[in-house]
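User: My collaborator sent over this chain with a note saying "see what the structure looks like." That's all I know about it. Can you take a look?
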Amino acid sequence: MSDIIASPSTRRIARDKGVDIEALAQKLGRTTIAPEDLDRTGGDDRTVAPGDTSYWDVDHSRFGPVTQEQVGRFAQVASGNLMAANALIPQVTHHDRADVTAIEALRSDWRSEAQQRGVKLTALAFHVAALARALRAFPRFNASLDPDGRVLILKDYVHIGIAVDTPHGLMVPVIRDADRKGLWQIAADITDLAARANARKISPDEMGGGSMTITNLGGIGGTAFTPIVNPPELAILGITRTEMITVWEGDTPRPVPMVPLDLSYDHRVINGADAARFMTHYAGLIADPRRMLV
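Assistant: Without extra context I'll predict from the sequence alone. Here is the result:
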């Protein structure tokens, strides 16, 4: 009598496929075999090649009620790019945070001017301005590798991608020449691009050529995450919700609003020390935004 635990239906499927359950269990190091395990082999009992997802093809309705929803074309394209990035790029994420006291004070002081201009001055506009200046200070972050990974292309322009969560999927329109634009123009560009992305009025040309992308979850929540690098860019900056952190000045505690920052980068070009220096510089610009408004 076999010591392998398998249901009668599983054994029937195995017989139909010509799969030796005992041999399969030994290969998998298991004593229990389920129907989906049978899809890991071919009729000649050879395991499938790495990366073969054929065994994911499971009839889920056998386990309970299901519904189906077609994945949109745009989402499929984005999914393919993310899969390739996650599989091929040796990615590391550096976590940091920055004091946003001064930014919130400026937004409050300039609220009436923003209303007069008809512009929504969000914290994201300050982040775009800071990132544009940081990329000028650290040119290796403003670069791309060729497909073979042998040539580094350094860019003499700064275009910042803004990840926009739309009903049609994630879109990343790009703010051109962000380092040469003032804060009010950046804020206006963010509003315009986000509105047109949601209305599916962004052209493919407006989503290419980015130096680095910002993905902002601050309006939703979270304390940290690991954004996936958006190739051919070499890094991506994630932002989550500002939180109040206690900072000690000697023996005196002081509450400080701090924004969590998550920088994912391609380790083939950028090392940990590079990332730490970059984020220290970036956090300094956020903490003292008047430095980037000169």
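A starting point for your reply to your collaborator: The longest strand covers residues 252-266.
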